[in-house]
Design brief:
Number of strands: 18
Radius of gyration: 29 Å
Strand content: 25-35%
Helix content: 25-40%
Shape: globular
Structural class: alpha+beta
Amino acid sequence: FIAVALAMVLLTLPAAAQKKAGKPGAGPLVPADSHFVFSFNIGSLLKKSGHDKIVDLPGIEEAHEELKEQSELAAKILEDPALLGIDFNQPIYIFGKLSPPEEEFGEPVVVGGMIASPLSAEKLETGMRNAVKEGLGEFGAQFLNNLKKEKNYSILTSEDMPAALAFNDDAFVVVGGNDEEAAADMGKLLRSVMAGKKKLSEGEPTFAAYLNKSVDLGGWMNLNALMELSPDVPEEQLKQIQELIGNLRMAGSVDFVPGGIRANASYSIDAEYMKKMKPAPKKTMLDLIPHNAVGSFAYAFDIAGTRKWMKEEYLPALKKMEGGEAIAMAELMIMGAIGMNFDDLFDIPKGEVIFSFIDLEMAANPDFGTPEPKPSLVFGMTVNDMKKLDTLLKKLEEEGGMEAMNAVGFDILKQKDRFFIANNGLIPALRTGKMPNAVAGARRTFFDKNEQGVLVDFKQIARLAQDFDAPNEVVQVLIKFAELRFEANKRGDLYEMGGELTFRDAKTNGLKQIIKMAQEIEQDIDLEEPPAVGVDPDNR
């Protein structure tokens, strides 16, 4: 029954919304002891694809005709998923909890389920009875007669099945497990979920933040709990790692928006060092990032807090763990090579870094005279301990690194508390403290307001592709994109990361544009593919 129910859910898409999309639906009911949660809003995905019904999607028409021969009801549900009684315009959540296997090479014990929003309890029950009767015959229909009314919901449990289900006007919940002992608790778990007891959204900030976002696809993980399933990590070492990093939780999502694709991630660590971290200082080197670079990166962070934690807690703890000898050996090798240990290296940075890949052009090789690609770029960082940096640079010079760098047109600049590596031609501008075409406007604001910021300009990438004679098909794909951005910030107890890929067409939804692009590429491949030997090209 569970297999039939889940198959119906996963193979159908919605036609009409009953509740406002973008809300968490029944997501707040996910139980607090879950180790992972996945969600998908297939109604939102269908709408954003530019199609009203699943049968309108490319390639579905033939599958629909074949489905008619196998199951008339399934074909009708494909045409009108509302017949199933589930509101597919609300997110569907798959949750689970894993336990280590009892035997050495056994499978993990999995207990979990699905939570969805019904159109109504009445419509769900009707759709479920029709689907089960179609899939399991009279046995299935008779089995559903065991539905009972409890409090404000209907519930179905059985001692013979490692699964149970319940529903009302607000939620449809199916739970199950792959272990006989776990199966005995399915009714208890189900009633707890329907009663809204011990909810994940109440005690876990990353999942609560996840529910508040617009999410087409996404999920949440308790990484500490999943670590415990690894047979390769000794129990004592695992305990040390968890004490060091605290409770690590992470959520991620993808949302298709007008003119782009948006991805977000957030993670929460309750370790003491994270609570002591200060906000990143204001950036001071943005004037040295060109506006029209191919790609640029700017980063500012609390280096003092990070340095203290790395020196006093993290590295000492790693060296004491099993396998820590490798870290100690690596440190000895570094000391032998440059005369500095890890602590010395951590003393060098001050907390701000920039990097910009400005351009790529053909230039003559000074040794052979033949043309070869030459990048134009700048790397800069603020320096906390210039003496230790000088020690590193002196070793680099002794090993011939400086000479090799100069030979390909790069040089080093030290200026007060700043250090740069850049093309020779950029050094004068770096000395003045500002590029003549410094980043400005919305791009400047983007770098300024985010602790970490990465920006890639597809206009420049498409230009380079044309300059270097890339295939026209590749250029045609590249010119459809505008920018790729990534940002990361500390927001209260959460670290939040996000990225967005935008298109030149800023109005059409990103999913619709991706589907159209895929169809165009497929057509190009079909046109270029030669017919098989002995096959008429007109009947391929």
